[in-house]
Amino acid sequence: MHLIPQNIKDRIFNIFLYFIMINVIIVTLYPFWNCLVGSLNEGFDYIKGGVYFFPRKFTLENYKIVLRDDVIMSSYRVTILRTIIGTATHVIFTAVFAYAYSRKILKGKTFYMIFCLITMYFGGGLIPQYILYKQLNILNTFWVYIIPGLLSFWHVIILQAFFRGIPDSLSESAMMDGANEYVICWKIIMPLAKPVLAAIALFTGVGHWNSYMDSMMFTTSKSLQTVQVYLMRIIKTQEMATQMANEAGQDILDGGGKVNAVTIQLATMMVTTIPIIFIYPFMQKYFVKGMMVGAIKG
Q1: Which candidate, 245, 248, 285, places its Cα nearest to that of 261?
Q2: What count of other Cβ atoms lies within 10 Å of the Cβ of residue 178?
Q3: Is 41 helix (H, G, I), strand (E, B) or coil?
Q4: Angle at Cα 59 formed by Cα 54 and Cα 63, nearest 5°?
Q5: Which of 2, 41, 233, 286 lies 20 to 30 Å from 270, alpha-carbon distance?
Q6: How far, rounded to the nearest angstrom, does the alpha carbon of residue 33 sit from its chain's CA centroid?
Q7: What is the pTM of this model?
Q8: So what CATH class is 61-297?
Q9: Taking the domains of the chain in order of start, what are their residue ranges?
Q10: Closest CA relative to residue 193, chosen from 99, 88, 86
Q11: CA distances from residue 19 to 63, 171, 255 in whole angstroms, order as listed
């Protein structure tokens, strides 16, 4: 019986993998590309159909209308500020807690582990959460976005697994040179953990950018509205998109208009999505390295 050579088997397997991955990429990217094409096409030409891969009648009018709206710019400021402050504070608090949790000299580690694991798997629900935020006086304030997300025990587990992989001799030699725990933490350990911290920062930043439930449930002021809540309202109610066009001097009831509710919705989706996508290429090397290091150390 003739056997297929091993190198032929490897090539067939690689071709199969490439075929699967190309299809996954197409299925993943095409909806995004289709939204981008629709947002760059004239509104009343787009609703005729047939616009799939490239704009048939190119226009930037949809983006001009979206970016001219004061509400979305205010929502942008809130979301950007929330993402920056929320990510920075989360990484700092989580890293400090994880460092302390990884130290062998810490007393009560079992209590901390049990207490934190319970919070990972069990929650009181929306109403107790609302009551708690009310008692903390953070309802309808900017801090309702920041304080509840200061610590993630799942990220603590990832970080402390990395910290435990660092030889104890490094800390011991630093102590012999007169360094205390604060110096060891910030000057020695944290610089070594940059890849893992960057991966956690990326996850946290994307979470803050995409979050909308807390804005919708725990705030009532329009000045605290995040961009994702604004996007949700634009998509759910075409009246908002119509009003945006009319305020910009575009009568979408006129068949010759360059915009309509659908293309404005698509432009709003792009405006709220593209900024966070552009951040990933700058974080990619840290992200991949951090995930690999975390997996190996764990």
Answers
A1: 245
A2: 7
A3: strand
A4: 105
A5: 286
A6: 20
A7: 0.76
A8: mainly alpha
A9: 61-297
A10: 99
A11: 36, 49, 44
